[in-house]
Design a protein that fits this description.
It is a single chain. The chain is α+β, with helices and mostly antiparallel strands. It has helices at about 10-30, 125-135, 170-175, 205-210; strands at about 40, 50-55, 65-70, 75-80, 85-90, 100, 155, 215-220. The longest helix has 17 residues, at about 10-30. The radius of gyration is 25 Å and the shape is elongated.
Length: about 220
């Protein structure tokens, strides 16, 4: 099927060979196969998805780069085809004859927000997911063109700082120019034994010196008679 339309048929064994050939031609740029063509081969399995060879060429599709082990070149794969591929993360995970692709780095599958969480491998995976959601809600630097934005409400932190602990990709993305928060000294202790849940005591002098200061941008429409 090409973009949801049936263009031909073949046996299950032939479909697997055709998919492998198309992927090799895609990586090498041969036979006129586009580099961004998504090639998904769904095998015939009991209780699985409907088997077939699915090709997608429409624009605005999510794709990501991985390394094709056959020649070491970059291969762009889509969200549907990667489900039926054997992609290794580390070198010791490569199975000869089975694994066809490998991640360029172990963190490539993570988003930009997820790659900003330091020591994420020491935390529970649900907590890392919560951090990804909270990372999108930081005041930080939401835009570089505040005077040209028409948001109903936008937040911006004023006393931003560069983080003391950071990931490697933090420097690669150049986020020091657009800091997203403050460095805080946190004490996890019981103050009186009758503390509130999900609350904290903030140092008054830190607040008076600008800790956590922010600006709220509101958009108003003025109609003159």
């Amino acid at each position: 099927m090409l973009d949801g339309k049936i263009v031909g048929w073949c046996t299950p064994k032939t479909a697997e060979k055709v998919a492998q050939s198309l992927k090799v031609w895609r990586v090498n740029g041969e036979k006129g196969i586009p580099l961004d063509l998504e090639i998904a081969h769904v095998p015939n399995t009991y209780g699985g998805e409907y088997p077939g060879l699915y090709l997608f060429s429409s624009p605005a599709r999510m794709m990501r780069p991985v390394k094709y082990l056959g020649n070491g070149k970059t291969d762009m794969i889509g969200t549907f085809e990667q489900v039926y591929m054997d992609i290794a993360c580390m070198d010791d995970e490569v199975v000869p004859g089975v694994t066809t692709h490998q991640e360029f780095t172990p963190t490539n599958i993570l988003s930009i927000i997820a790659n900003q969480t330091p020591f994420s491998d020491f935390n529970q995976s649900p907590r890392n997911m919560y951090q990804c959601q909270m990372g999108k809600q930081t005041m930080g630097t939401p835009s570089t063109v505040f005077n040209h934005r028409t948001d109903n409400k936008m937040y911006r932190i004023q006393s931003s700082q560069t983080p003391v602990v950071r990931t490697e990709l933090y420097n690669e993305y150049g986020l020091d120019g657009w800091p997203q928060g403050n460095n805080a000294i946190v004490a996890v202790i019981s103050y009186t034994g009758y503390d509130m849940e999900d609350a904290m005591i903030l140092n008054k002098s830190a607040h008076e010196r600008g800790f956590g200061y922010g600006t709220v941008y509101n958009h108003h429409i003025s109609i003159w008679p």
